[in-house]
Amino acid sequence: MPRIKINHLKCTGCRHCEIACSLNHVENTSNPRRSRIRIMKDNERYYPVISGPFVDAACTSKHFIEINGLEYDMCAFCRASCPEKPYFIEAETGIPLKCDFCGIPPNPSCVRWCNSGALELVED
Amino acid sequence: MNGWVGRCLRVNLTEGKHSVEELDTSQAERFLGGRGLAVKVFSDEVSPNVDPLSADNKLVFSSGPLVGTGAVTGASCSIVTRSALTDTLACAKTRGHFGAEMKFAGFDMIIVEGRAESPVILSVVDGKVRLVPALEYWGRSTSETESLFKGSLGNQWTARETFVLSIGPAGERLLPDANVVNGRFLPVGGAGIGAVMGSKNLKAIAVKGQQSLKVADGNKFVQVVNTLMNKLNSATLTAQSMPQWGTAFLVGLCNQNGILPRNNFQEVPISLGNIGAESLEKAFALRSQGCFGCPVACIKKTDMKQQSYEGRGMVPTYLSIGTLGTNCGVSDLSTIGTASMLCAEMGLDPVAIGGTLATAMELVEKKVVTVDEIKIDLQFGNGNGILEALTLISTKKGYAKKLGQGARKLAESFERPDLFMGVKGMPMSPFDPRAIQGMGLHFATSNYGAHHLYAYTFIDEVLNVNDKIEPYETEGKPALVKFYQDATAVLDSLGLCCWPLMGLKFKNFVPLVNSCLGISHNEDDLLKIGERIWNAERMFNIRAGINGSHDILPERLMKEPIPDGPAKGQVSRVSEMIPEYYRLRGWSDKGEPKEEASGAPGTGEV
């Protein structure tokens, strides 16, 4: 099954993937707030986050984790289109968004427009 | 509307009121948007004799129609006003994410007029326009301002998506060398704008929103973007040099041709020592950062904690290495990096302040002034002096008295105007016009003073991307300069970056523009719009009293040959090229645009 592999160390934060997603899902429209992939910025680094389903029980425990001495806010990198944060909720309709691999795998538009190599399509 | 949002925000700081206006679509077609439309609006509304620091001056922030649509490198927002440094028009191009977010916030253009009684921040967040009292922000550096403002929003999700453009202490103190800073990243070419913003008591502008932008033909548009990205990826300069080193890769190439200036344009560096691109890589851990929608990502950030560098800022670009480095005799990367970071924190323009410091250093060298008199140890090669000066000039009143008035006035105040290396009050960016004749002609004729970012002639003259053009020759240069000036005006107005011209041809952008905006222009149509914009800017300057007699380079560059290096013996032959340049532009002998200047209807009138 093809999956999108994220290497956040390569991400340049240009947000071209957000627009690619928006143009692919909403006709002739560019709007990062209608995109199913968003770039989070933390400590001058960028993290692409692809939206997934929201499950109630998901966020009861760990909100912060520590990797190599740096603390990360898991809430920011969570892919759920949850009511707690205004990401992955379609700007104009309020509908929660979820990545659908652009309909027909294996050709997600965000991977095609990512020039930095941060997003990569892999078979696993 | 396609591309454009179709709305402008007008904010009157004196009355504390704002209004939303429809975008003038007929003018948007004639001037595209961005820089072109901002120049049109500004020259229509503001008298050319306005005092730059008075309440009558206006500030126009204007994003181009392609910004935020996903067009490759569509991120540029132009800021137009009358400059406090040059008295001409000033146009800064700020990239990063501010321009795109401004359109998502719902406005193509923000026009700021009047003057607030006490410091304010203009916040355009989620459709709400507010003037936030900003007394507690006054005196703070740009990065502090940004963090503090984001903290004040009270919601981390809103804060994450908000982009802030602010001035530092230099702008507050009305230093003509001040610039605005966009998310800790310096815009280019806008010396004099920081002071105008400071005079309005406007500390910062913050934008965020969720407005959708429309493109005319989405399928075609996506195809064109794919094609352009493939082209950029197959060109060596945009696929390797720029992503790897940023613009610093030019340092070595320019020095090979004797273009990199040293010690206030007196000589050229004999050896680069440890400031070349390869040393950059060794000195700092490099990581790329991209402006909105840019596949090239030429901004290099540092990760590594280094003594006195602190890893906060950008890795120095060609511009900072040239102006704050070699032209001040400094060849230590960590000093140049720190200086560049200080400029961003204090809100100083590296070209303008670099020129001022280099002038001061030559004044000291020529024994016109003593170090005691200017209170800071400014001597060629003294890096610590530069660092000290950058902070002291922007924060302590006594130090700014001499050094804070800009390079030209500094040289004039000691009766040595010949030591000012610049045009129309703007110090020259680090290209020695004696060794690159086309750039020299552009420096002399530019509407904004001697800044290379309004005509990238080095793409042909140094990098030989399209043709092999000899930098020391004058033949064909007037046409080359006119092409690059017009093309840059078009790209700025569309909101695209000009660096991709290293991997793309100008005509490659035509399908991008057409599929996005739903128009059917060809290359010549666009270049005609560029010419119209250039003429409009020229007309404003002429009415402001800056005319053909100011199209002149410093005497040193026309009379004293380069003493050493690959360009030994060269002088700038700009006066030979100017008549041909005026003729190509259709201007009079005195450099005034005629009614029928470019053959396009309505060009002459502005």
H-E order of chain A: EHEEEEEHHE
Strand order of the largest sheet of chain A: 1-7
Strand content of chain A: 25-35%
- Looking at the overall shape, the CATH architecture of the largest domain in chain B is 4-Layer Sandwich
How far the N terminus sits from the C terminus of chain A, by CA atoms, comes to 6 Å
The rough form of chain A would be described as: globular
Mean pLDDT of chain A: 84
Unreliable spans of chain A are: none
Task: Report what the structure shows.
Chain A is an alpha+beta fold and 124 residues long. Chain A has one domain (2-123). Chain A has 3 helices and 7 strands. Chain A has a two-stranded antiparallel sheet with strand order 1-7. In chain A, strand 3 (37-42) and strand 4 form a beta hairpin. The model of chain A has no long low-confidence stretch (mean pLDDT 84). Chain B is of the alpha+beta class. In chain B, strand 1 (7-12) and strand 2 form a beta hairpin. Chain B is globular and about 55 Å long. The model of chain B is unreliable at 597-606 (pLDDT under 50). The interface between A and B is large, with 34 and 38 residues. Strand 2 (29-30) of chain A pairs antiparallel with strand 12 (213-214) of chain B, so a sheet runs across the interface.
Q: Keyphrases for this structure?
A:
heterodimer, A: two-stranded antiparallel sheet, 3 helices, 26% strand, B: 606 residues, alpha+beta, Aldehyde Ferredoxin Oxidoreductase,  A, domain 1, Aldehyde Ferredoxin Oxidoreductase Protein, subunit A, domain 2, Aldehyde Ferredoxin Oxidoreductase Protein, subunit A, domain 3, six-stranded mixed beta sheet, 25 helices, 16 strands, globular, disordered C terminus
Which SSEs are present, and which pair or pack?
The complex is a heterodimer of chains A (124) and B (606).
Chain A: E1 2-6, H1 16-25, E2 29-30, E3 37-42, E4 45-50, E5 64-67, E6 70-73, H2 74-77, H3 109-113, E7 119-123
Antiparallel strand pairs in A: 1-7, 3-4, 5-6
Chain B: E1 7-12, E2 17-22, H1 25-31, H2 34-45, E3 59-63, E4 77-82, E5 89-94, H3 98-104, E6 109-113, E7 120-125, E8 128-133, H4 142-152, H5 156-161, E9 163-167, H6 169-172, E10 180-182, H7 193-199, E11 202-208, E12 213-214, H8 218-234, H9 236-245, H10 250-256, H11 277-283, E13 286-289, E14 299-302, H12 318-325, H13 333-346, H14 350-365, H15 371-374, H16 383-395, H17 397-403, H18 407-413, E15 422-423, E16 426-427, H19 437-445, H20 458-461, H21 477-494, H22 509-517, H23 523-543, H24 555-559, H25 574-585
Parallel strand pairs in B: 1-6, 7-11
Antiparallel strand pairs in B: 1-2, 3-4, 3-6, 4-5, 7-8, 9-10, 9-11, 13-14, 15-16
Helix pairs in contact in B: 1-2, 2-21, 2-23, 8-22, 12-13, 12-14, 13-16, 14-18, 16-17, 19-21, 19-25, 21-23, 21-25
